[in-house]
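Follow-up to my post from last week.
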Amino acid sequence: EVQLVESGGGLVQPGGSRRLSCAASGFTFRSYWMVWVRQVPGNGLVWVSRINGDGSITAYADSVKGRFTISRDNAKNSLYLEMNSLRDEDTALYYCARVISYGIWGYFDYWGQGTLVTVSS
Amino acid sequence: EIVLTQSPGTLSLSPGERATLSCRASQSVSSTYLAWVQQKLGQAPRLLIYGASSRATGIPDRFSGSGSGTDFTLTISRLESEDFAVYYCQHYGTSWTFGQGTKVEIK
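User reply:
Got it. Predicted complex:
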């Protein structure tokens, strides 16, 4: 059974940093692109970042470029999101999801439960 | 960037009724790259439909997707209690964008 479990959320001050983790199980982790998607409570879904199977290709939404870094450790079946220079508008529920690839994009077939990041002083 | 507009914002229906949800793209998109996602309150999103009309693993056949070009539809043939949720369409061909969602609520 495919499982994705996020952790690392919490309260952080504006300008601060936070590292999110996503533990994957039930599939060959290194074979899949992975993404982070966020959702402001009560609002819609927004793609944040993606990474390919071996970690050599990454991409970011403009809103987080230069502040967030996605990475993965295939030996630990784990995905990460390092978030720096956090802003109020980064407050959201952060999901990791597995990508079924179509070219460099694709749909998300499994999602984690999410971890909440609150940026506030 | 392709913008997806969903309608209606809220659909109030009774169990057993048919639900028809619309997703309109700002420009023509390949049906290969259109998905529908369900999100229940407090739960993770769940893939329902990909490629505009293919059901994901384990999705009951009361859910169906159709459409092409700029107009796509998710139909739930007979609503069951567990189907009351928010539904998002998603484009995944040239970027990843989501519609703003349609809430299906109990009338």
